[in-house]
């Protein structure tokens, strides 16, 4: 592949990721979750399974612990997450989603599904599945983080 072709592919992937992030965020806000930014969604993706410490969240987002702590303060204040004692480390706090955080996550999933259905209108469902499978082979484990 020529350098110019590689750059064109890179630009297309970045533009697609940027549009996807924006449209998911718009869909979340349209579903009544005011004050949500894409950074919140990337944090929710890490918190969703079993919670995380501020240090783990910082590593996931690629930011300092101080920046992650400020983000946690914001989502706790907004009612999307809460701090709990860590089950294995008495010095740490586990940040977990509240029901409001889970509802916001479900709204993001619905918004993402709308966007991807639109891709199906352009490419066809089979091609969208092929695209998903190819991208999963290239980057199977992320990272799923914002491009600050």
Key phrases:
148 residues; mainly alpha; two-stranded antiparallel sheet; 6 helices; 7% strand
Task: Present the secondary structure layout.
Layout: H1 3-30, H2 38-47, H3 54-61, H4 65-77, E1 81-85, E2 93-97, H5 99-123, H6 125-138
Antiparallel strand pairs: 1-2
Helix pairs in contact: 1-5, 3-4, 5-6
Structure at a glance:
Helix content is 66%, strand content 7%. It is mainly alpha-helical. Helix 3 (54-61) crosses helix 4.
Characterization of this structure:
The model has no long low-confidence stretch (mean pLDDT 91). Helix content is 66%, strand content 7%. The radius of gyration is 17 Å and the shape is globular. The protein has a two-stranded antiparallel sheet. It has 148 residues and is mainly alpha-helical. The relative contact order is 0.14.
Distance between the termini: 28 Å
Question: What structural class is derived from the secondary structure elements?
Answer: mainly alpha
The major pleated sheet works out as:
2 strands, antiparallel
Strand arrangement, major sheet? 1-2
- The unreliable regions are none
- The outline comes out as globular
The total beta strand count reads: 2
The SSE order reads HHHHEEHH
In percent terms, what proportion of residues is strand? 5-15%
> Residue share in helices?
55-70%
Q: Give the mean pLDDT.
A: 91
Q: From the alpha-carbon coordinates, what is the Rg to the nearest angstrom?
A: 17 Å
């Amino acid at each position: 592949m020529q350098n110019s072709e590689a750059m064109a592919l890179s630009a297309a992937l970045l533009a697609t990721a940027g549009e996807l992030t924006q449209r998911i965020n718009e869909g979340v806000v349209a579903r009544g979750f005011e004050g949500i930014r894409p950074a919140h969604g990337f944090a929710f993706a890490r918190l969703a399974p079993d919670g995380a410490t501020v240090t783990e969240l910082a590593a996931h987002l690629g930011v300092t612990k101080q920046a992650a702590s400020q983000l946690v303060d914001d989502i706790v204040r907004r009612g999307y997450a809460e701090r709990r004692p860590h089950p294995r480390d008495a010095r740490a706090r586990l940040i977990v989603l509240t029901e409001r955080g889970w509802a916001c996550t479900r709204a993001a999933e619905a918004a993402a599904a709308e966007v991807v259905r639109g891709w199906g209108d352009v490419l066809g469902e089979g091609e969208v599945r092929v695209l998903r499978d190819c991208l999963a082979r290239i980057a199977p484990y992320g990272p799923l983080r914002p491009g600050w």
